[in-house]
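Help needed: design a sequence for this.
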């Protein structure tokens, strides 16, 4: 990244949700390495120590906000704090939950949590920060969807539909803000080995899981580069693109449902 770009956004901040681990952490490190200041949101209070490490290591500002994005009032408070203290040039809505389970076995609370984090928190935080973003000469939003958004699939509860929401929400916003200095991008990654639970699920998916596997660091690197170029949909793995665009849904949906059902037959303790 050229020094020119980081100096263009000097004094401004990138906000990342779910920043203490997995892809969110990879985004935080990628942005810091490139010289950008960050506001890192996490449900885990360890984020405050992580911000301190980032400040020391990368000589950029990094501020943590501990927030449970499952709670509507907490989202309002976090947004008010951000708007009062930080000019925001980039919002990355990364926090999200998923999993594989037969629908009749999923508790209502689990479904509600997925919808709350993936759908409500993503759209509400965007709404609450939009004026801040529009106040900058140039600003960006990246929403993290999933390959699961691209074809209906069974045994994933409300996850694929919630990620289809994220994708459509992003593309609609992008059209609405075209020419107004705000560029909206969406990424639909395949599997990323970000937690022991997800590693277990990928192993059970066999060949297909490994084919679409990408590291969170690679996704973060590619996304940051492409967001700044104003790219609409960011592709991180050619196989994901080939499968989702060339294989019709009448083949994809039964195939993916069969693969995911295998995961649920011997569920790991966390799934
Ligand atoms: N891993 C994959 O295979 C995969 C594939 C496609 C898409 N994705 C998407 O990529 C994104 C990141 O996934 P990941 O695998 O890195 O995450 P993860 O390991 O599944 O962890 C869940 C993420 O949501 C955040 N989170 C959970 N509960 C929260 C709460 N109550 N309040 C605020 N944040 C909360 C966590 O951050 P904190 O712990 O810091 O709060 C963490 O970033 C998600 O949107 C996911 O759906 C993942």
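Sure. Designed sequence:
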């Amino acid at each position: 990244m050229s020094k020119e770009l980081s100096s263009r956004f000097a004094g401004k901040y990138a906000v990342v949700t779910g920043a203490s681990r997995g892809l969110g952490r990879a985004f935080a490190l990628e942005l810091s390495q490139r010289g950008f200041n960050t506001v890192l949101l996490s449900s885990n209070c360890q984020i405050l120590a992580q911000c301190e490490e980032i400040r020391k290591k990368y000589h950029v500002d990094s501020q943590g906000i501990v927030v449970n994005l499952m709670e509507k009032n907490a989202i309002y408070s976090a947004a008010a704090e951000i708007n009062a203290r930080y000019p925001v040039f980039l919002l990355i809505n990364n926090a999200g939950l998923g999993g594989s389970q037969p629908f009749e076995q999923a508790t209502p609370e689990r479904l509600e949590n997925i919808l709350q984090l993936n759908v409500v928190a993503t759209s509400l935080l965007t709404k609450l920060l939009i004026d801040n973003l529009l106040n900058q000469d140039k600003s960006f939003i990246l929403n993290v969807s999933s390959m699961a958004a691209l074809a209906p699939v069974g045994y994933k509860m409300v996850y694929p539909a919630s990620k289809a929401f994220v994708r459509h929400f992003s593309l609609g916003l992008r059209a609405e803000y075209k020419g107004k200095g705000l560029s909206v991008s969406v990424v639909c990654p395949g599997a990323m080995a970000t937690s022991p639970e997800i590693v277990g699920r990928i192993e059970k998916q066999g060949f297909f899981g490994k084919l679409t596997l990408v590291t969170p660091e690679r996704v973060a690197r590619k996304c940051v580069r492409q967001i700044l170029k104003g790219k609409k949909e960011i592709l991180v793995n050619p196989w994901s693109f080939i499968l989702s665009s060339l294989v019709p849904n009448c083949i994809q949906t039964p195939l993916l449902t069969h693969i995911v059902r295998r995961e649920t037959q011997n569920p790991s303790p966390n799934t």
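The CA atoms of residues 244 and 265 lie 25 Å apart.
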